[in-house]
Design brief:
CATH class of the largest domain: Mainly Beta
Distance between the termini: 66 Å
CATH superfamily of the largest domain: RlpA-like domain
Function: Lytic transglycosylase with a strong preference for naked glycan strands that lack stem peptides.
Radius of gyration: 23 Å
GO molecular function: lytic endotransglycosylase activity; peptidoglycan binding
EC number: 4.2.2.-
Number of domains: 2
Structural class: alpha+beta
Pfam family, one: SPOR
Shape: elongated
Strand content: 25-35%
Protein name: Endolytic peptidoglycan transglycosylase RlpA
Length: 285
């Protein structure tokens, strides 16, 4: 399919129209001439891993117009679920820029969608065979009236429709925070994870203590992109402490305390002694 028309909304300036052309250039011209990639073992392909990410400016122009059709982006992906036809794009676009400025890699678990915020994470299920995959939406398309989502070659292979070109699918948006908490809960309940984590000797800053592990992990996720230090959750006598560190010097500890204060987070010094075994429930640290 060759691009016939790409125009910005009438209220968009010519410069913005050029920007829209650039960010959509990697996804509007897919067609039957698009080629497959190398053979992959569908069972060995790992899902995309959902993680909290800010919505990018690039790739989120709204409204935009392609082939005379105007699209308005969703303000939020929360609760989105739909069924429709999925297609895939491969070697013809491998190495080109996606709508948000990333380089398209046909061997990564990514997807294009016309109106979901970029980035979003969705679970796509092939309704013909029950296979499912988690992909990260980082592109726009497919610009066919009868198609709902465009998947990478790897994702199409994992869903086992790469030979046919299209498939009937169900698409469900994933909340990255809820997904990560669910994964941590499963890990905590597995026999291999029954032993409590070991804490390295040193100085820490305690920024929270919760009775529920989910709340502790939620604070960890909120902080992880805001401060340049390790963060961990320590089970301790029925509570779950959120610790920043270890901090290797008094200067680093003071700097971390100041950075946390700028985020309006109170912090208390926590010392892990060399003789303190966290796995010992009677140890006092």
């Amino acid at each position: 399919m060759k691009v016939q028309q790409l125009s910005a909304h009438p209220a968009i300036t010519p410069l913005c129209a050029l920007i829209v052309l650039l960010v959509l250039g990697g996804c509007v011209s897919r067609g039957v001439s698009d080629g497959p990639g190398a053979r992959l073992d569908a069972d060995a392909i790992a899902d995309a891993v959902p993680r909290p990410e800010p919505v990018t400016r690039a790739g989120n122009f709204s409204p935009y117009t392609v082939f005379g059709q105007t699209y308005h982006l969703m303000e939020s992906a929360e609760g989105y679920r739909s069924r429709g036809i999925a297609s895939w794009y491969g070697s013809k676009f491998h190495g080109r820029l996606t709508s948000n400025g990333e380089v398209y890699d046909m061997y990564q678990m990514t997807a294009a969608h016309k109106t979901l915020p970029i980035p979003s994470y969705v679970r796509v299920t092939n309704l013909d065979n029950g296979r499912s995959a988690i992909v990260r939406v980082n592109d726009r398309g497919p610009f066919h009236a009868d198609r709902e989502i465009d998947l990478s070659w790897a994702a199409a292979t994992k869903l086992d429709f790469h030979q046919r070109g299209t498939a009937q699918v169900e698409i469900v948006v994933i909340d990255p925070v809820a997904w990560q908490l669910a994964q941590q809960g499963e890990a905590a309940s597995s026999p291999q994870s029954a032993q409590l984590p070991q804490l390295l000797e040193g100085e820490y800053l305690q920024v929270g203590a919760f009775e529920q592990p989910d709340l502790a992990h939620l604070q960890l996720l909120e902080l992880i992109d805001k401060i340049p230090y390790a963060i961990q959750v320590l089970p301790d006598n029925g509570r779950y402490k959120v610790l920043v560190g270890p901090l290797v010097s008094p200067e680093q500890l003071q700097m971390a305390r100041q950075q946390l204060a700028q985020l309006s987070i109170a912090a208390f010094k926590y010392t892990q002694l060399a003789s303190c075994e966290v796995s010992n429930p009677v140890a006092k640290c």
